[in-house]
Specification:
globular; 12 helices; 341 residues; 13 strands; alpha/beta
Length: 341
């Protein structure tokens, strides 16, 4: 077995750790751990300031990562007999939440690896209660435009809540990127999901949040649920929001890394297709078994993700690492594909 630590390119983590100010902020609250966090805490207000767009503390709710917020939403809005629309491929947590609530899963295929708004709308029935969309999309990296989102919201019936997962929004360079703000302000049935795991490099602390109208927030986030964020996570989040230079560097790293991955894989023998990405990863289809390629890379201590669990069997997703990790991974992929049986 290899002695050095694996190269983690399978979970869409930020290879850059947060600033020392984040660690110092966590250390600074340790002496007060005998006290409960305030409800709402300072993080809610600071998040509203950070996002701008006229948002207030009443628009923000928090949780132990985006996955926890998704769980809160499913518990509040999905029940046996309800339907939930999930694109395919997708982030598996959506499917799991629908199943755990005893609701009926309705899947809609992507159109050339992009969300198809008309097909999604056509899948709505009187029993539909939720629709999950991700932009930039995980695992494909494709983008929903503002015009597409606006069209969908204009036609989406009032009995459907749209969960619009924006956790990769920092990395998108396309100015046409969809954002949910105006629909939140219009008190529409939409919740935008955000996370500190990506651009802020805080995956290990588990901090996510939702942006919605106060009406929607009251339905899934009663005041007691704000205790979900502890004092250390609150302190880290507040410090991370001040690290504007660090976030800019992470965005630059991800955007440049995606370009390197896309260009190298596109010209590589043994690769059938590569999807352009507006996120922090690139998905590609090798002309061999994706699971075999994943296992071969693991033997070389490089972890990537074969996408059967995301309903893209045969495809492989590589997260952007630091430049050395990305180049090493590409070198190993090229070597494995050129010497495959």
């Amino acid at each position: 077995m290899p002695e050095h630590a694996p190269t983690y390119l399978h979970l869409n983590e930020n290879p850059r750790p947060p600033s020392k100010d984040v660690a110092n902020a966590v250390l600074g609250v340790l002496s007060g751990l005998n006290r409960y966090p305030k409800v709402p805490n300072r993080l809610h207000g600071r998040l509203a300031e950070y996002l701008g767009k006229g948002l207030t503390i009443e628009n923000i709710s928090v949780g132990h990562g985006g996955v926890d917020v998704l769980h809160q939403l499913a518990v509040a809005f999905l029940h046996p007999g309800d339907e939930a629309i999930v694109p395919r491929p997708n982030f598996p947590v959506y499917v799991n939440n629908v199943a755990n609530r005893g609701a009926t899963l309705v899947q809609v295929e992507l159109n050339d690896y992009r969300l198809d708004m008309q097909a999604l709308l056509d899948a709505v029935t009187p029993a539909t209660r939720m629709m999950y969309l991700t932009s930039p999309h995980n695992p494909c990296g494709s983008l929903t435009t503002q015009d597409e989102l606006d069209w969908l919201m204009e036609h989406l019936p009032d009995h459907v809540l749209l969960v619009f997962d924006e956790v990769y929004w920092h990395f998108a360079s396309d100015p046409a990127q969809a954002r949910a703000w105006k629909h939140v302000h219009a008190d529409r049935n939409v919740v935008a999901l955000h996370s500190f795991s990506k651009a802020f490099g805080m995956a290990g602390l588990r901090l996510g949040y939702a942006v919605s109208s106060p009406r929607i927030k009251q339905k899934f986030c009663p005041p007691i649920s704000e205790f979900r964020v502890n004092l250390m996570t609150e302190a880290a989040g507040l410090a991370a929001l001040e690290d504007t230079e660090g976030v800019r560097e992470s965005i630059r790293l991800m955007q440049e890394g995606c370009t390197v991955l896309y260009n190298a894989l596109s010209g590589m023998d043994g690769v059938i297709r590569v999807l352009p990405s507006q996120a922090s990863f690139v998905a590609f289809r090798p002309d061999c078994s994706g699971k075999w390629l994943e296992s071969q890379l693991a033997e070389r201590n490089i972890l990537v993700r074969e996408l059967s669990g995301f309903q893209m069997p045969g495809w492989v997703r590589i997260s952007v690492g630091n430049p050395g990790e990305t180049e090493q991974c590409l070198s190993e992929v090229a070597d494995i594909l050129s010497n495959r049986p």
